[in-house]
Amino acid sequence: MKISTGYESIGNTAGKKNGSTTTSRLTYAMTTTSSKSTSWSSELGGSASWGVATVEAKVGRDITDSTEKGVTVQNWMDVPGGKWGYTTPKIERTKYVIQRWQDTASCGARFLGNDGTLGGITAFPFFSECVASSACTPKP
Questions:
Q1: pTM (predicted TM-score)
Q2: Which of 48, 68, 80, 125 could form a disulfide with 40 if both were Cys (CB 3.0 to 4.6 A apart)?
Q3: Average confidence (pLDDT) over 51-60
């Protein structure tokens, strides 16, 4: 069961003003400044790799185990003339709770508890962007 989705920065924000009067493609190459890992909190048992495999099988999304610090990532964006373009490399982290249920004799289901909570990296790298007349903060 999906709980939430959020974004975490893995590098510094880069920005540049397009000094032209026409739209230009600005390309940013930046190095990641932090590493991130998929997290696992076990309640009824199971390992992190079991949690990842369970979510991938049930939800159909790939989960990245970890990202590395010091990797160069690249992004480009079209910025209108006279505007500023900013971008920040991020990861998308989606939290899932894995529940344990038992079939009953009367064809019902009984909740046994939560196996654990997985904070899986579901997108890497993800780039937040903004374009504005002055300084702006890329969101999300």
A1: 0.83
A2: 48
A3: 92
